Amino acid sequence: MHPRAEGLASAERAFALAEGHPLSQPCSRQTGESLWPVWTRSSTHLWLLSHSCMSRTSCPRHRLPPTPPASRSPAGASPSCELPAGQLLQPSPENMLEGLLIHKPDEPIQYMISHLKQDNDHVPRICILGPPASGKTTIATWLCKQLNTPCITQETLLEETLELTKEVTAFQERGQKIPNALWANLIQERLSNVDCIKQGWILEGFPENRDQAWMLQLAGITPRHVVVLYAPDTVLIERNLGKRIDPSTKALTYVQTWCRSAAPFTPRILFCGPPGSGKSLQAALIAQKYSIVNICCGQLLKEAVADKTKLGELIKPYFDSGWPVPDNIILKLLTDRLNRLDCMTDGWVLHGFPRDLDQAEQMVKAGIIPNRIFFLNLPSESVMERLAQRMIDPVTGERYHAMYKPAPLPEVQARLKQNPKDTEENIRICLETYYRHAGDLEEFYDNAFYINADQDPYVVFEYIESCIVKPLPHKS
Question: Per the confidence metrics, is the pTM higher than 0.85?
Answer without folding.
Answer: no
